[in-house]
């Protein structure tokens, strides 16, 4: 990357910050506080932010030193050319999952705003229209969407502030009710801490991988640190405060709104319905408190995010095909394929399984981060001169480590043995990889490709 094209960490931070203010993050932040209360939620937010900054800085330094994206970095460190296909699968699962969840949240908000029934004709119409919009933006409108990113992020935050003013100044709610809120999880501090960390902690690996893609453009190592800190601080601290103020403080008005629009709905049923809005209809808060302004804002802001999701998802699929077959299918085709996969995730009920999706995704992304960090820092001791002549087709030590660590974490969570199994995945990956690499040194059970071939990336 030429020095003239590099940017400061503050300039590059706009991209992870725009990801960190998406509707899905608002849902995660609000739900965390609903479960654990404000004090425990903020503690968890600070811990997760610290973990995400560590991961983002570690991976970002790798991308900065090598000048490669996260996809290519995984080819050179941890997995090999073909072995990196497993990383492309994880990245695609992450990006396309967010594409699906954001669409589902917008769909629910649209039903509320336009008072539409949740019927198959409405689903086909709305999801079809959104999918065509995401495809068009990813293929033809990505640059305008990126240029508008800063403005749309600012508008989203301003509308959120307006909602907070409406709740606490106009409606007269007390902020102390939020700050002293204890959460719905019964028991002491540990059950609430575990519940909160199981929701928010899994996102540490996702924001770190997003950061890695932009770290190669940094001017200095200090800029890498600034970039690595921007997304996690916004996502896990700022959004936790904003989300809790809106969700907890605004819940009484949401209940009143539901009862007014459905006279047959009693207080208990209205409270239950309002609680489901936190994770399954986050856009409802923007609709109820900001009306058409909120509705238009979430669509405009999410259109930008969805364009990036659709584009990034297509690159993951292209690189997956390249890793496995050596052929690069057209990006436009893979944009369509990615959106079809996202629709399949919606049909499979990804929004209803949001917490499980996050937890299992966390085991995969943190396991992947662990392998790459262990390979670069522990095995190679940061040795990379930028002139690698050859790269393994498959680094079996990395692939085996990722599978073992991710599966272990998922099994621990699926069987309710340990709700924070994704942390086990991270620790196990960092500990296991150096051991396996000594037993399976470079070239074991594989051949090599030229470094130039491994460094070829889809655009």
What does this structure look like?
It comes from Streptomyces tagetis. GO terms for molecular function: cytosine transmembrane transporter activity. The chain crosses the membrane at residues 12-29, 35-55, 76-100, 120-142, 149-169, 189-212, 224-248, 283-301, 332-351, 357-378, 394-412, 418-436. Keywords: Membrane, Transmembrane, Transmembrane helix. This is Cytosine permease. The protein is mainly α and 459 residues long. The protein has a single domain (3-448), classed as Hydantoin permease, CATH 1.10.4160.10. 77% of the residues lie in helices and 1% in strands. It contains 20 helices and 2 strands. The chain has a two-stranded antiparallel sheet. It starts with 8 loop residues before the first helix and ends in a 5-residue tail after the last helix.
Q: What topology does this entry show?
A:
Blueprint: H1 9-12, H2 14-20, H3 23-36, H4 38-66, H5 70-79, H6 85-114, H7 120-140, H8 142-147, H9 149-170, H10 175-179, H11 189-200, H12 204-215, H13 221-261, H14 267-280, H15 283-325, H16 331-347, H17 354-379, E1 390-392, H18 396-414, H19 421-439, E2 448-450, H20 451-454
Antiparallel strand pairs: 1-2
């Amino acid at each position: 990357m030429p020095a003239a094209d590099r940017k400061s960490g503050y300039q590059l931070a706009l991209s992870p910050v725009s990801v960190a203010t998406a509707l899905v993050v608002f849902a995660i932040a609000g739900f965390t506080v609903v479960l654990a209360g404000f004090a425990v939620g903020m503690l968890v937010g600070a811990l997760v932010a610290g973990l995400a900054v560590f991961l983002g800085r570690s991976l970002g330094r790798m991308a900065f030193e090598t000048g490669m994206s996260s996809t290519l970095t995984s080819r050179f460190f941890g997995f090999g050319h073909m072995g990196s296909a497993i990383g492309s699968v994880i990245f695609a699962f992450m990006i396309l999952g967010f594409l699906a969840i954001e669409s589902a949240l917008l769909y629910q908000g649209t039903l509320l705003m336009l008072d539409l029934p949740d019927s198959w004709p409405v689903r086909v119409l709305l999801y079809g229209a959104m999918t065509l919009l995401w495809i068009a933006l990813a293929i033809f409108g990505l640059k305008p969407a990126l240029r508008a990113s800063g403005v749309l992020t600012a508008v989203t935050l301003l509308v959120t502030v307006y909602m907070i003013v409406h709740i606490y100044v106009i409606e007269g709610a007390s902020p102390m009710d939020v700050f002293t809120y204890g959460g719905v999880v019964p028991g002491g501090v540990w059950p609430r801490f575990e519940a909160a960390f199981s929701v928010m902690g899994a996102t540490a690996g996702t924001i770190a991988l997003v950061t890695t893609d932009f770290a190669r453009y940094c001017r200095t190592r200090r800029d890498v640190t600034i970039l690595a800190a921007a997304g996690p601080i916004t996502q896990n601290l700022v959004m936790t405060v904003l989300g809790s103020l809106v969700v907890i403080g605004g819940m009484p008005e949401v209940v009143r709104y539901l009862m007014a629009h459905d006279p047959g709905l009693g207080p208990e049923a209205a409270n239950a319905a309002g609680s489901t809005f936190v994770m399954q209809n986050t856009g409802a808060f923007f609709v109820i408190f900001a009306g058409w302004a909120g509705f238009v804002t979430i669509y405009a802001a999410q259109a930008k995010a969805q364009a990036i999701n659709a584009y990034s998802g297509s690159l993951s699929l292209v690189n997956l095909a390249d890793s496995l077959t050596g052929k690069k299918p057209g990006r436009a085709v893979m944009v369509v394929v990615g959106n079809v996969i996202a629709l399949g995730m919606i049909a499979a009920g990804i929004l209803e399984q949001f917490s499980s999706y996050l937890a299992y995704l966390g085991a995969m992304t943190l396991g992947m981060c662990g392998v790459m960090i262990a390979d670069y820092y522990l095995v190679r001791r940061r040795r990379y001169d930028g002139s690698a002549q050859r790269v393994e087709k498959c680094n079996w030590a990395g692939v085996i480590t990722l599978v073992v660590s991710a599966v272990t974490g998922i099994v621990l969570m699926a069987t309710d043995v340990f709700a924070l199994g994704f942390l086990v995945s991270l620790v196990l990956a960092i500990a296991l990889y150096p051991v396996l690499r000594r037993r399976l040194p470079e070239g074991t059970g594989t051949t090599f490709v030229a470094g130039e071939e491994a460094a070829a990336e889809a655009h």
